[in-house]
Design a protein that fits this description.
alpha/beta, 7-stranded parallel sheet, 6-stranded parallel sheet, 16% strand, globular
Length: 403
Amino acid sequence: MDKITVVHIITKLELGGAQQNTLFTVAHLDRDRYEPALITGADGMLIDEARQLKGVRLFLIPELVREIRPLKDLAAFLKIARILRTIKKHARGTGGNTDGMVIVHTHSSKAGILGRWAARLTGIRHIVHSVHGFSFHQFQHPLVRAFYILLERLTASITRAFILVSRANMEEGLKEKIFNTDQAMLIRSGIDISEYQSVRSDRIAMRASLGITNGDPVVAMVACFKPQKAPLDFVKTARLVIDEHEQVEFLLVGDGVLRSQIKELAEKLKISDKVHLAGWRKDVPEIMNSIEILVLTSLWEGLPRVLPQAMAAGVPVVASDVNGSREAISDGINGFLTRPHDVQGMARKILYLLTHPDEARAMGRNGKGMVQEFDIWKMLSQQEALYAHVSGSRFGDHSGQRP
């Protein structure tokens, strides 16, 4: 039986949910059925991890960057096309026919556009795209938003199937006529639940490694420091909470272009001693089990992986009420939802949890009971079933449980 080559293309291997799930997928695809390959930019914290994956062909393209850079984008497009042409040439089946033997699976906006058109140029028809949040959103200028919607529609015409991580993104894509219901499949962004429910680390030592040496409750946010995540709102919220409840610490895990502005705002609000910047960390399960509340101030989302992570660890969440976030957090059940940019409303919810610890713990337990939908092995199983369907093979679905 001929194996199917599955080529994943993603812009940058930063420490994010889409990137981590892509690495998990290529690492754990059934090798009796699939041969994985990965094309990505040459920058990112997860590059070394990608290099260590066994049985995964890795192609790094320095010109593949997140920002719009016409010359680099053209160079990246041509390099992707050249790589796909080579992969397609060597993916011939026993009959010498390449049809159905190569699937291109793209992620993120930049790689999604360049990768799908490069696949089309090389004659690959089986193209899958994962939407981890659209390139267009309500905070853009109407003309910019219209341009991105048009670009997505045009590229959708050469796309066989779409994976949506949230129902909100699916509804938005249908509304904007980017795809139809026959093309779209809901597959949740998964996490390894057991990693968060079997932590045995020293809580005091972990907090000390984050710069927190007292026993005060910790309110944390794990995110990239970029406008979409609105980390400055987290700092503003912290000031409002501290005004009412001084015995609390705030933790930001991540990094990005807004780091200097975060530090400046914390200093301006005179809370720099209360707001700890930990940088990127790979020990998120241990961090989740060392905090009292998880906060997410995003303006738009696909389905942020950090929310199921908090749920698995039994941590209540206060998040902005956007897109997929409301599909993980049920308001008043396993956390609270507030309007984007509503720092006063977010502060009130955090204060409520701080002053009602029994209810906070109950919400955390509720989250644990709701997290199975986001199991990473279920995600893998569903993706393999989709690949089988797209390629027209007779591979059946399997349980997706840990081997």
